[in-house]
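From the methods appendix. Each design record in this collection lists the tokenized structure first, followed by the designed amino acid sequence. Records were kept in a plain field format so they could be parsed without special tools. The example shown here is representative of the layout used throughout.

RECORD:
FOLD TOKENS (223 positions):
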């Protein structure tokens, strides 16, 4: 009999250590609490609620994911293209179960998701699959995404609104970065954590004054 192939996970990524998860959740929740009280945010509230006068409690609006992580490769148990090849990469095997530090440089909020932008180091980029930035991107946005540096999609999903899947965070992040590149930034507000900008249709981007670092382990997840 043939030896059984090792099973492929749902995805590979950097997983925040439990204590780091708590720290990041607290810091980012504080930001959400402040954001929904800002006049600039209230002006665009209908993009979240569908009604101009309605209030929104962003802490309730977004549901927390189970384990905070930054996905490198979504394998879908082997159904995703390139899953097996990724799992077999020497760098993936060597990095597996090793600690690594991630650097969060921005937070994003849209009517769909709440996320953290991750700035990957050159070493971390070796674990970032080629073409990962473009996966599932709408054809109309592809040229803009191709113009962004590789790894631009790297992020941690911090929350999703009802009925929204986590994969949306990377797509919304790319859209925001493409708009910024075109110089389409609107209102800017100075906050304790950094500069908040509005990018139309309920999209908000907080560029952190100081990056937030988080200790992680590179690993895989299967449901
Ligand atoms: P993300 O990395 O943006 O958080 P799910 O629970 O929906 O199956 O997803 C499991 C993880 O894999 C999530 O972290 C999710 O998004 C990511 N993910 C899901 N689908 C894709 C996809 N098509 N491409 C890239 N990442 C995906």
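DESIGN:
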């Amino acid at each position: 009999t043939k030896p059984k192939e090792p099973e492929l996970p749902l995805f590979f990524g950097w997983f925040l250590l439990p204590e780091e998860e708590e720290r990041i959740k607290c810091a980012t929740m504080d930001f959400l609490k402040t954001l929904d009280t800002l006049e600039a945010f209230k002006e665009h509230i209908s993009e979240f609620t569908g009604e101009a006068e309605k209030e929104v409690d962003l802490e309730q609006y977004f549901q927390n994911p189970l384990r905070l992580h930054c996905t490198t490769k979504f394998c879908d148990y082997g159904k995703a293209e390139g899953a097996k090849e990724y799992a077999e990469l020497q760098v993936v095997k060597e990095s597996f179960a090793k600690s690594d530090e991630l650097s969060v440089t921005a937070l994003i909020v849209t009517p769909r998701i709440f996320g953290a932008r991750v700035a990957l180091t050159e070493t971390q980029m070796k674990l970032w699959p080629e073409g990962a930035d473009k996966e599932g991107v709408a054809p109309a946005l592809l040229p803009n995404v191709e113009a962004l540096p590789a790894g631009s999609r790297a992020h941690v999903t911090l929350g999703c609104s009802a009925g929204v899947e986590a994969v949306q965070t990377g797509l919304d992040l790319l859209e925001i970065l493409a708009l910024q590149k075109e110089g389409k930034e609107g209102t800017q507000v100075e906050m304790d954590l950094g500069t908040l900008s509005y990018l139309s249709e309920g999209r908000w981007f907080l560029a952190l004054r100081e990056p937030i670092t988080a200790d992680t382990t590179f690993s895989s997840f299967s449901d």
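APPENDIX NOTE: The pocket of adenosine-2'-5'-diphosphate is lined by residues 10-11, 71, 74, 135-136, 157, 165-167, 169-170 (CB under 6 Å).
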